[in-house]
Amino acid sequence: MDLKDLYRDVIVDHNRKPRNFGPMLSPDAHADGHNPLCGDRLTIYVSLDGDTVKEAKFEGSGCAISVASASLLTEAVKGKSVAEVDKLYGEVHELLTRRDTVAAPGLGKLAALSGVHEFPARVKCASLCWHTLNAALHPPQAAVLAPTSTE
Amino acid sequence: MNAALEPTPANTAPFDVEAIRADFPILHQEINGKPLAYLDNAASSQHPRVVIDSMSNYYERDHANVHRGVHTLSQRATDAFEAARENVRRFINARSTKEIIFVRGTTEAINLVAASFARPGIKPGDEILISWLEHHANIVPWQLLAEQTGAVLKVIPITPEGEVDFSAFEQLIGPRTRLLALAHVSNALGTIVPVEQFIAVARKHGVPVLLDGAQAIPHSRIDVQALGCDFYCFSGHKLCGPTGIGVLYGREAILDAMPPWQGGGDMILSVSFKGTTYNQLPWKFEAGTPDIAGVIGLGTAIQYLESIGMDRIAAYEHTLLEYATARLTTIPGLRIIGTAPRKAAVVSFALEGIHPHDIGTILDVEGVAIRTGHHCAMPVMEFYGVPATARASFAFYNTRAEVDRLTDALVKARDYLT
Lengths: 151, 418
Ligand SMILES: Cc1ncc(COP(=O)(O)O)c(C=O)c1O
What we know:
heterodimer, A: alpha+beta, Sufe protein. Chain: A, 3-stranded antiparallel sheet, globular, disordered C terminus, B: Aspartate Aminotransferase, domain 1, Aspartate Aminotransferase, domain 2, 2 domains, 7-stranded mixed sheet, binds pyridoxal-5'-phosphate
């Protein structure tokens, strides 16, 4: 195990300087996420233009992995349709949980999370924001039909 | 006054930590290519070879059910089981083995007291008094009791140093207090609570006292008679013994007056549909086939600790605590959380700009095992306004070299993430 696999430069940078960090005044969708084991808490806000994510922001506190993952998420989903975000959610989930998976080409900077699967105790840190975003875009009644795995 | 917990370095024979380490098979391994430095003893401690052997010997040669057969194996198992009870009695200086009840652990001991001692006769508005320092195991059973009976849970505040506020306690205890349930040592901060002072006040008010000794018993000599508590609870697995076994000490007269907790085999003398007669103490509280191997392992762990000497263990651990405190405070941005003047060998800390979870991962890659999180004491975290802390907790088999490795790994964590 090499720490450099987990704490890639991109991760360290997004932890130090989280992008799109802060409240959103009148979001079209938002949800809170909490990981009771480590105390990570975050809120994801989304503004929509029809079916397209105009902007995503987040607030909260957590470890470097969860903050960087949320920061990367807010950049990655901007301008994508909800269906595209759902596809990305699936790809990130694969990346975080599957061994020796090659980062899907569309992941861009999110590929920096590819070392997380070597640290199983940290997978939930990286996925918390994605589960939270999913809950924001697909509020509970929809989520019952399409349950999301929490690993 | 605090003799029961003060490190008293009476035995000045040099403490041969390397010889002690040789007794612990698990310590001699590499984690991620680095020698293991196990600094998570407050969560669970490791086992010397004699403890592991005592349990496998039991399974290989002596296993049968206890208290119920005339055949040789059942007799052997019963003898070993009851001999372990005597070891526990001697270890905590209880008057009688009738006062030693085997349970699953501290958690079960406290739940037993809540159900069989506190619950009968409690009235709405009666109060249970605990402190802000408590482990969830000494909070939630009382919250459940309060919900079910209308009793009220009162919480003694703590000071910024992490001490239980004695003058606030004197204000809070009163005519409605039914029980004072206190941690002897805080698992999250290491604070040694001067329980003798609290017990003296409780006595004046006629309030019985339960001590959660889970973190005190591995670090010091406990004398329940000198303490004067009514209940003392602890877990085997924090004492170099197995998981799944623990002890409730209760004063005999009180245990006698309590109704049984669980019903079943072993806790009865005779059963008939006209009426059932309960067994004597301690078996009245031990329904069903117990964790025989666990009890034997615990008895052996106690003998092992006695052979080293709890006073020498306390003195050695105290030097480790002082060394660790001195080394860690040299790290810029490191803040020790819990700075009571009297502490067990537990150091909780925060590192500015780095979440404890990241510290835990980076240290693990360096072979250093610590605990990060809320330590099952979320009110303590809330008090300090942190979601979690990193905690290094030492045992008598830890070394100064391991403290150095902890320090170096923390410096590395800082360099990585800030
Ligand atoms: C102070 C304290 N009380 C209670 C417990 C609960 O012990 P167990 O989980 O062995 O029942 C612990 C263990 O973490 C503890 O540290």
